[in-house]
Amino acid sequence: MIFLFLKYLQPAYYFGLFRYDGSSAFSKINKIPLTVIESLEKDNSFSSDKASEYDLSWQALQKGFISQNDTYSHFEKLPIEDEYRFIHKYFHPIWCFYVLCIRLLSFKNPYREISCYLKGRRAQRSNYYLSPIKYEDYNDFDSELINQRPQITIIIPTLNRYAYLKDVLIDLENQDYKNFEVIVVDQSEPYQSEFYQGWKLDLTAIHQEEKALWLARNSAIKMSKGDYILLYDDDSRVDSNWITEHIKTLDFFKADISSGVSISTVGADVPNHYSYWHISSQLDTGNVLLKKSVFHQIGLFDRQFEKQRMGDGEYGLRAYLHGFLNISNPHAKRLHLKVGSGGLREMGSWDAFRTKKWFSPRPIPSVLYLFRKYHGNHQAKLALLKTVPPSIIPYQFKKNKPLLLVGVVLSVFLFPLILFQVMKSWKLAGDKLKEGEKIEKL
């Protein structure tokens, strides 16, 4: 971690890990262009120059500086007071107090911790996301890749959502970029073959009897003709320039992956960073364009996530670790309807941390499989500590912060039950780790 205390607040963060080649996501300050440095907020109140340097590098990444060259390959240990100053600048006071509590319960020197925490409170909260780095050349950029008209393969798994899939295909008919094929992997019961007749699309429908999301995507990728794979969901709406913006962003940034943003009608608030380009710390298989060569080099989706959660998160992390550049693309957005029936709703849980039954594992075992496989058991435990208590509140109330605090309080009273759920998930995740990944090569 560039700052040690991020391990408490972002315990399963992509960029908390070094890539396989030893590089990180954080650029060395002396290698960042002066025009970018001038847009950052220099903080001379850190006690060490190295903390001030790391702070600028962290800002640059968060504000949208995109580069994979000349990054840090290791981070020096910083004074504790600088760690507290950093989290007070960028995180809500409640989370800063949360870190203090963990540190005290870990038998750290209470006098030093409390005094450094109080010093850190003097830091002014940063609103760095209000002034992201702008790429003004993008609008006038004449994409050679678009002019080459590469073939795109759009892959859509579907399950009992014909009414919504109709709108999806209408949106695809209206795309201003035309050189694409569509592969729909239909797991519906009953299967309606007549639905796929009459569309003005290069459309292939496959009837898959097994209800398996990652099998569906892997099968479609293997039969795809395109040099680029565009993964999409069956309950989404997009503008007519959706494909064009994905291709243009890949070309403009010389990237391997364009992760379009998803605006959900249900769930948490839209994050501030969805409004500007930056190196993405996630991959959403409901709206992402990838070079097919990525699949050739690192394989297909891990079927250990079948009927569970975070298979796309694992793929995004795997791509990051192998050095592929993934851009969060605000211009290639979709409206995610998150309808209450069909799709993953019928195959598993809507949410990674919320259970359907009292004695079901919490979180979904695949989540702990991901955390433990890549981040280790210690970080997985910190992730549980941060994410499980708020998950007591139902999904539809994720935006209600007071209710999330109620969930934290309730978790204390429900501790024996929650401990049982977590231990069950931990064991099932351990079984997955023993069995090993199920990643097929392309």
Layout of helices and strands:
Layout: H1 6-9, H2 34-37, H3 49-63, H4 80-90, H5 93-105, H6 110-120, H7 144-148, E1 152-158, H8 162-173, E2 180-186, E3 202-207, H9 213-223, E4 228-232, E5 236-238, H10 242-253, E6 257-264, E7 278-279, E8 287-291, H11 292-298, H12 311-321, E9 326-336, H13 344-347, H14 365-387, H15 401-413, H16 415-435
Parallel strand pairs: 1-2, 1-4, 2-3, 6-9
Antiparallel strand pairs: 4-8, 5-9, 6-8, 7-9
Task: Describe the model.
By secondary structure, the protein is an alpha/beta fold. The protein has 3 domains: 6-130, no CATH class; 144-345, Spore Coat Polysaccharide Biosynthesis Protein SpsA, Chain A, CATH 3.90.550.10; 351-435, no CATH class. The chain contains 16 helices and 9 strands. It has helices at 6-9, 34-37, 49-63, 80-90, 93-105, 110-120, 144-148, 162-173, 213-223, 242-253, 292-298, 311-321, 344-347, 365-387, 401-413, 415-435, and strands at 152-158, 180-186, 202-207, 228-232, 236-238, 257-264, 278-279, 287-291, 326-336. Strands 1, 2, 3, 4, 5, 6, 7, 8 and 9 form a 9-stranded mixed sheet that branches. Strand 1, helix 8 and strand 2 (180-186) form a beta-alpha-beta unit. It is globular and about 75 Å long. The two termini are 33 Å apart. The mean pLDDT is 92.
What's the gist of this structure?
This is Glycosyltransferase, GT2 family. By secondary structure, this protein is of the alpha/beta class. The protein has 16 helices and 9 strands.
